[in-house]
């Protein structure tokens, strides 16, 4: 009888724990919704909750050679007018946020100071992630993040520059609920290195609903050329600040796992050996 009661109690506790865990995960998921997700793997489709597909503007195109498991990537260049990807998110209430995560893979060849990675900023609303050229040496770049303005951006530090001419996974998070200390965090990783937080800064306020469209490789803040020469994959916008583990999961999702591939090959060879032995 005691064993039966003990077993029932343990099963109840296990079920209660699972329900609690599911509730917590659901709460976190709801607080950090993936609102826009553009893989840019030869497609302009948005697999985020908004589902607002984009378009290639001017000379922007898809080319072969995406990062990791992606076959293609968005390619932009700075020859002539702006060349970028654009999605009609203007006046969408989902783009008014108290917290945000921007993550992406980018392979930057060359750029000018102020060239944009992603932006829907105007003088009074939207957000902005762009490039700064005051770095340690040629071939490096820094990031600047801003919202609701074309001035007053916070920047990654001089001594933590990102590398050009290679695929880099970068992310920026902002959480307005953190009112004491830094609440903007800059992250970086690559195809072989795990993501790390390499700098932080402080801002205040909420991101106002953007009245302009969302652009990758451009910005609605100006009609001037703000397009870097770059490749892009897996651009994501969350309406919450993801933690390091969540960002690392996004990074590794794009990179084929060699161990899994080895297991598949091993299983295939074992199967051939068994068939040969039976024959």
Detailed description of the structure:
- The model is unreliable at about 1-30 and about 260-270 (pLDDT under 50).
- The protein contains 3 helices and 16 strands.
- The protein starts with a helix and ends with a helix.
- Helices cover about 20% and strands about 35% of the residues.
- The chain folds into 2 domains: about 1-30; about 35-270, Jelly Rolls, CATH 2.60.120.
- Strands 1, 3, 4, 6, 12, 13, 14 and 16 form an 8-stranded antiparallel sheet that branches. Strands 2, 5, 7, 8, 9, 10, 11 and 15 form an 8-stranded antiparallel sheet that branches.
- A hairpin with a 7-residue loop joins strand 7 and strand 8 (about 125-130).
Short description:
The chain is of the alpha+beta class and 279 residues long. It contains three helices and 16 strands.
User: Mean pLDDT, rounded to whole units?
Assistant: 84
H/E element sequence: HEEEEEEEEEEEEEEEEHH
- Return the CATH architecture of the largest domain: Sandwich
Helix content: 10-25%
Task: Tell me, briefly, the overall form.
Answer: globular
Integer count of domains: 2
Secondary-structure content class: alpha+beta
Briefly note the CATH topology name of the largest domain: Jelly Rolls
Radius of gyration: 22 Å
Distance between the termini: 56 Å
CATH class of the largest domain: Mainly Beta
Instruction: Show unreliable segments.
Output: 1-30, 259-270
Strand content: 25-35%
Largest sheet: 8 strands, antiparallel
